[in-house]
Amino acid sequence: MKYFFFAVLLFLVLPLQAQLAYSGTVVDAVTGEPLPFVNIGVADRAIGTVSNEEGIFLLEFRPEEVGPADILRISSLGYEPTEVPLSRLEQATKHFTFRLKPSPIGLDEVIVSTAELFKVEEEVGYPNMMGRGIGYWKDSVALGGELGSRIRVDKGLRRLNALFFQVLDNPSDSVRLRVNVYETDIKSTYPGTNANKSGKGILYTLRKGENLVVIDLTAAELWVSDDFIVSLELLGVYGTERVGLSLPAGASPGGESFRRYASQSRWERLEESVMGFSVQSTLYTDNPRRLPKTRIIRKREKNETEISGYVFHAGNPLKEASIRNYTRNESVQTDKWGRYTTIISKGDILSVSYPGMLEIVVEVEEPRNFNFQLKRN
After folding, report:
1. How confident is the model at residue 95 (pLDDT cuts 50, 70, 90)?
2. By mean pLDDT, which of 15-19, 150-154, 188-192, 366-370 is the weakest?
């Protein structure tokens, strides 16, 4: 079996007296509130970090790793980035405060059309990577490091609804991740503009023992019209200093993956290899030929099963609990008795959620009636 290793390496830890250390806090320039998970790093160098939940960061590096013309860059979704020449930072200063200005809210261009639009639900990407290889972060990647793959799609207006991937190994108690979706830079074909215009990051805490990960993307209002790049960014590791997150990966004709070691560092290309990311999406088209063929629809309907069941908490039925079929991009709610009815097929991914309760995510191995017992978060 071939294995494709995407190794993100650890910076060598040297004695503190040989290092420069910049600590600080990043805050909103208007409200003064601390900003969590802001990217701070030396532009295009493998030197970077991410602020914590309180907006505090620590950036350490050796003097010989940088030059007088190097730039410290601070950036976050929804804010104007700030760049400061390293030569302007006083080494004697113990703590810096960076104030980021909120970005003006830009309205996307609205295209008015009289053509009838059809919606086509599609899963795109690389869902069948199990057993073909491993993609992983080796040892301890610097905070802000990313690993992503290009998802190739037909051109057309497309909304991204959910991200799926499997986890092979995670030795940590939990790993804090951010999902980034990039448009492809036309000139370089590297990750370009972030497609997330909501101003809010797509955050996910991966807990030990999770095998199937489903991340809802709808709140970010992600729209693409061509190929795009999905990446996972490391924001924090809890319960151990070692990161050994392993995901399915493998070779794919024409496939491309990209990595960078830390916040603000330069992207590197990995040819012919992809991570096992897949995205459920809705394609909007005025071309009826893009709709599924009749034989495909009939085959799908033949495999569909109507199921029902109940959602409980501590033995009590939950009214208006949500049962979402991510694969079909459909949702239903329980009635006043906690009962639901929905259509599923083998392989569909279901989510059961209720405010204040831990979400349950299952992949349907055999279509049948399911009852769900939710626990408090």
Report:
1. confident
2. 15-19
Per DSSP, the three-state class of 86 is helix
- The domain boundary, picked from 69, 100, 131, lies at 100
Mean pLDDT of the chain: 87
d(C-alpha 31, C-alpha 29), whole Å: 6
d(CA 200, CA 181): 13
pLDDT tens digits, one per residue of 317-341: 999 999 999 999 999 999 999 999 9
Number of domains in the chain: 3
> Burial level of 38, CB count in 10 A (0-12/13-18/19+)?
buried
Q: pTM of this prediction? A: 0.86
Q: Which domain holds residue 316?
A: 292-373
Q: Residue 26 corresponds to which tokens in the numbers above?
A: 């990043």
Residues 6+ apart with CB under 8 A from 289: none
Measured CA to CA, the distance from residue 92 to residue 237 in angstroms comes to: 30
* Number of residues that make up the chain: 377
**Residue 37 backbone zone (phi > 0: left; psi -120 to 50: alpha; other: beta):** left
CA-nearest of 75, 8, 29 to 246 is: 8
> Quick check: is 107 in a domain?
no
So what's the pLDDT on residue 181?
97
Structure tokens at 46: 């493998």
